[in-house]
Design goal:
By secondary structure, this protein is mostly helical. The protein folds into two domains: about 90 residues, Helix Hairpins (Orthogonal Bundle), CATH 1.10.287; about 140 residues. It is built from five helices and three strands. It has a three-stranded mixed beta sheet with strand order 2-1-3. Strand 1 and strand 2 form a beta hairpin. Helix 1 runs antiparallel to helix 3 and helix 2 packs antiparallel against helix 3. The protein is rod-shaped. The two termini are about 20 Å apart. It binds zinc ion. The site of zinc ion has 9 residues, from loops.
């Protein structure tokens, strides 16, 4: 003969089993999963490549700036040498000197910008490198812990399944079928506790005759409102 307590215990066990299975699935997914570390390494490598590009750019801009500086000095030396006789020639040199100075200023700014960018990228590479090392260390520890936990959880699961089977064997076939049906339709919550005269699943106040039947705990009494098996502890 089934008691409602048995159905309630069965539900507790089924919930525990489901949690255990979920945890096992989650552990299995994380075991061997190096995606976090790989992502850090991938970002570091991409940044390293950008350093190569920035270095080339910085070098060519620096060289360009140097040769322009020489040119500016040459023009200015000529300008202040006192060798220019005509006003027109003087104006021509002045124009050229100021044009070259402007160009040099722009170029110097670009050189500075690429230097800053290079500096940032180098710091980024170092930071990502350090983070991937940390992540790797953490991963190694975590993998060992997860491996241990997985073993324990699998033992727990087979233990739970064994206990569940022997409990289910004590419940009548008809009641098991009712329980299983409700377990599916009520998303794992087939048995509802009664507290203060109310069904705890739906909050409905239960009529006295229903409470009395549920109290005897012999045969399943369903809540009028949500259809779950009522259980009074
Ligand atoms: Zn209910």
């Amino acid at each position: 003969m089934t008691t409602l307590k048995q159905l309630y215990d069965l539900q507790e066990m089924d919930q525990e089993t489901a949690e255990c299975r979920d945890r096992i699935t989650a552990i299995e997914r994380r075991l061997g999963d190096r995606s976090e570390i790989e992502e850090l390494v991938r970002r570091r490598d991409a940044l390293k490549e950008s350093i190569d590009r920035l270095t080339v750019r910085h070098r060519s801009e620096s060289l360009e700036a140097e040769s322009l500086r020489v040119k500016v000095e040459e023009v200015e030396a000529r300008l202040y040498s006192g060798s220019i006789k005509s006003v027109r020639e003087m104006e021509g040199f002045q124009k050229e000197a100021s044009f070259l100075r402007e160009q040099l200023q722009e170029l110097d700014e670009r050189v500075l910008e690429s230097m800053v960018a290079l500096d940032e990228a180098q710091r980024g590479v170092e930071e990502l490198g350090a983070r991937s090392v940390e992540s790797e260390e953490r991963w190694q520890v975590e993998q060992v812990e997860l491996g241990r936990e997985l073993k324990d959880r699998r033992t727990d699961l087979s233990d739970l399944e064994g206990r569940r089977d022997s409990l289910a064997a004590q419940v009548s076939g008809q009641d098991i079928r009712l329980y299983e049906r409700l377990r599916v339709s009520k998303k794992g919550w087939a048995v509802a506790k009664v507290q203060g005269g109310m069904c705890r699943a739906c909050g409905m106040a239960l009529p006295t005759h229903q409470l009395q039947r549920a109290r005897t705990g012999r045969e399943p009494v369903l809540c009028n409102s949500c259809g779950r098996i009522l259980f009074m502890s």
